[in-house]
């Protein structure tokens, strides 16, 4: 039966047995889990994507207030505004993502058998499925990052191919449309290509093409927001996000912004007393109506919050640095996991999944901690050997992500790490494979 399926016309696009098995297992796994799960997860963030998607379906972005970028709503657009079809798309994207994980592992010299089992291990984490069942950008971002790193690990720095540069530029451009925060990634990749064989003439080599689509995406969408709101920003949440970093020293802002700090401090103390998420304090201030008397629309208010945030940070750099390191950056290494999603429909199943997730969470945290410990090792190795490696590129991009997200905002920072968690696990496995000698049996497992 299985052989008939594997050799059927369903898999006309590949002859690889392991890829066929990954697709079959991935589809069956998602169907099985979905039988016990509820409808899709809708978070407060989700409505912004749905709202933009509805405007895109009307082919009218006039007066759009700029909260979200169009990358993820495009998925909703191609699903004709159906939330159910959007989730089905995401499940399909999840299956395809696992194929790129497999091919990436082969690029990194894991053998066929071990690559297959490592992918099943990566895919088994419950929160991967839960993200796929949610109207959030993370599943699409994970897919795009997985394709990008598949290309990078396929000797990207050594090869020169115009088609590959254009493809990578397009993928990175779409990634920026999905999450404008990722605009730094193409610049890091371009920097690596310059370091590979450093010459001043290489600044204008064809590798620079990878910057084209990301810049068009970022600047183009910012211009759309400029037309609609008057502010040249990738998202009108920008100012509000900056102000979130001031939550623990909100009262130290300039006197001219006391109308902000008074409300900010009041709701911060309420959040602490009620044991709510302190990072969301500025949102509670906004929702409370404390700023309504100013008669600002959201874009104008966010701009004022951004001015307040920048001025407060400039006057209190020590508090800001402490906030970034001990909270925003530290939270990046945590896990945005099962606890924040809907429970499974059947209590008994949910209880089992909670126990499974507890074990998985400990395993994942161990890998993330190990990766964090290994970062200095790979940086030192580069300084010593002057050799660019796939592990170094992953380390630099993940570390840059952890720092930049901490500098930009405070709140659900662990979501920023989700698209990179599989890479952290792979780097740790690579380290064990190459540098740690166990028994012959254990080393063979990681061949």
Automatic annotation (TrEMBL):
Tagged with keyword Membrane: yes
Ranges that cross the membrane: 21-39, 74-102, 114-131, 137-157, 169-192, 204-224, 362-380, 392-410, 416-436
KW Transmembrane (keyword) present: yes
Alphabetic keyword roster: Membrane, Transmembrane, Transmembrane helix
Name used for this protein in its record: Glycosyltransferase RgtA/B/C/D-like domain-containing protein
UniProt source species: Flavobacterium macacae
